[in-house]
Amino acid sequence: MTATPQVIQPIYFEDVAVGTRLPTREHGPLTIVDTVRWAGLQENSQHLHFDRDHVREHNGLRTFIASGAYRQALLMRLITDWIGPRGMLCKLSLRHTYSTFEGDLIRFGGEVVEKSATSDDPWLTCALKGHNQDDREILTGRCTVRLPSRPNAAR
User: For the chain, what are the domain ranges?
Assistant: First the structure.
């Protein structure tokens, strides 16, 4: 089955204000296929990301967990899809606060918390959040993005 392509509407600096919410994006449930594919891509052979029995015995966890880099990549996709091909993700800072386990859902979102005063330097700072299906925070962070200005925008 082929997923329907998502149409990205252009977003411009002038269209965004402090308080503007980023779209919410949900992924999951997390499966062993997700974690093994990502581990293979990263050449990451840590048992923590694919071996249920090993993590139960040696790490005291109920099952394997998603890589932090996997979750970060999913969040970065949300950001770059939102800013579009003419926007630029300039800075990203994250803190992983709780693991994502096999079977968990991952939900990301954010909000614009700061905006430059002029379209001559069109940057935004966004607060970012990630939660699981129980609404438990799994990560928090901030990013700085640059957006294009509308043609003929007052500068």
Answer: 13-146
pLDDT tens-place string over residues 24-83: 999 999 999 999 888 877 777 788 888 899 999 999 999 999 999 999 999 999 999 999
Residue found under tokens 């003419």: 86
Architecture of domain 13-146: Roll (3.10)
Q: What is the pTM of this model?
A: 0.89
Residue 15: CB atoms within 10 A of its CB come to 11
Q: What pLDDT shows up at residue 93?
A: 98
Dihedral sign computed on CA atoms, order 28, 57, 37, 88 = positive
CB atoms within 10 A of CB 39: 20
